Amino acid sequence: MKYARKISTMVGVGEQDTAINLGWAVLTRASAGRSEVVKVTNHEEADDLVRRNPDVFYKSGPFVVG
Q: Is 27 in contact with 50 (CB distance < 8 Å)?
C-alpha cells in the first residue's frame, strides 16, 4: 500500500479565530466488517475517490489534523 508523502487538508477557523487543518479519511469497504484507511486528504480528493469507486471506498470526516 502506498501512503501520501504530504497530507492535503482544508483549513478551517476555530472558535477563537485560530486556523485549524481539517482532513478526511478515505476507507475501504470491507466485507468482513473491518475497514482500512487508505488515504487522508482534503474533501475534494476524498469526494473524487469515492465518486469514482463507490463500491470500494467511502469517506469519513472532517477531523482536525494536528
A: no
pLDDT in tens, 40-61: 999 999 999 999 999 999 999 9
Mean pLDDT, the chain, rounded, equals 80
What is the Cα–Cα distance from 41 to 26, expressed in whole angstroms?
Answer: 8
The number of beta carbons lying within 10 Å of the beta carbon of residue 65 is 16
Q: Please give the grid coordinates belonging to residue 5.
A: 508523502
Does this model's pTM top 0.85? My answer is no
Element (H, E) at 47: helix 43-52
10-13 and 19-28 strand pairing: antiparallel
Got the DSSP string for 13-36?
E-TTS-EEEEEEEEEE--TTS---
